């Protein structure tokens, strides 16, 4: 059996299991005591969260394996990956330098998350996301404008 057939059947099986979980999530009822409240919790919430973690782990593992195979078979890809990782490191460093770790004055909140370290990481992540979003928009506009002149 060809690898494309195996991957196609695997994807269909994963999609079927996911659809069953989503169906039970929306139509399977709620945890006792939460029905009819604004915070009604479906019975299968923990199961569907674990399923999404499993799918994420499988995806990341496959991504890493294929990237390692690509690097081993093509040394030019290693150079490109190094450039991409270098650019990502620079963007993360810039984001970290722009992020603020000043405590937020939250009324009636004494939780563990309002600390400088957590605020610095969250700020870095937000700024990095903004930079990537802006770069995506600029690249889309550039390609659209470049195609007009070609």
Give an overview in words.
This protein has 2 domains: 1-73, no CATH class; 75-150. 75% of the residues lie in helices and 0% in strands. The protein has helices at 3-27, 45-73, 75-98, 116-149. The protein is extended, with a radius of gyration of 22 Å. The chain starts with a helix and ends with a helix.
What is the total tally of β strands?
Answer: 0
Structural class: mainly alpha
How many helices in DSSP terms?
4
Oligomer: single chain
The secondary-structure element order is HHHH
Measured distance between first and last alpha carbons:
44 Å
Q: In total, how many domains does the architecture comprise?
A: 2
Transmembrane segments: 12-31, 51-75, 82-99, 119-145
Keywords: Membrane, Transmembrane, Transmembrane helix
What is the topological layout?
Blueprint: H1 3-27, H2 45-73, H3 75-98, H4 116-149
Task: Characterize this entry briefly.
This protein has four helices and no strands. It has 150 residues and is mainly α.
Question: What descriptive keywords fit this protein?
Answer:
transmembrane helix; 2 domains; mainly alpha; 150 residues; transmembrane; extended; 4 helices; 0% strand; membrane
